[in-house]
């Protein structure tokens, strides 16, 4: 169950990163509220996952899901630049996440 909590926490991290971008420096109340709610949910689920997963594993996977998810979202919805270096970096992050998962108990 901890891995499910962690995965969903990572999804909420993507949501809050995206809504923070759309909040325009917290000047748009709706997106600001979405950011804060998604942050709270993300942290709460991360905390639940950390009850049984090692700190380093949980935190690394959580930030990795958020980083790669935000990267993909930025390309797909915000028209951010795609380059070989950026895609390679994302692939390396995902590779690290997979290695963390297979090498961790739980």
Describe the structure.
- The chain has one domain (2-102).
- Helix 1 (2-22) runs antiparallel to helix 2.
- With 106 residues, the chain is mainly α.
- 80% of the residues lie in helices and 0% in strands.
- It has 4 helices and no strands.
SSE arrangement:
Blueprint (H helix, E strand, L loop, with lengths): L1 H21 L6 H21 L5 H24 L5 H19 L4
Helix pairs in contact: 1-2, 1-3, 3-4
GO molecular function: transmembrane transporter activity
Keywords: Cell membrane, Membrane, Transmembrane, Transmembrane helix, Transport
InterPro entries: EmrE-like, Small_drug/metabolite_transptr, Small_multidrug_res
The overall strand count is: 0
Order of helices and strands: HHHH
Shape: flat
Count of helix runs: 4
Approximately how much helix is present in the residues?
over 70%
How much is the radius of gyration in Å? 15 Å
* C-alpha end-to-end distance: 9 Å
Mean pLDDT: 94
Percent of residues in beta strands?
under 5%
Low-confidence runs: none
The total tally of domains equals 1
Biggest sheet features: none
Backbone structural class: mainly alpha
Keyword list:
single chain, 106 residues, mainly alpha, 4 helices, 80% helix
Structure at a glance:
With 106 residues, the protein is mostly helical. The protein has helices at 2-22, 29-49, 55-78, 84-102.
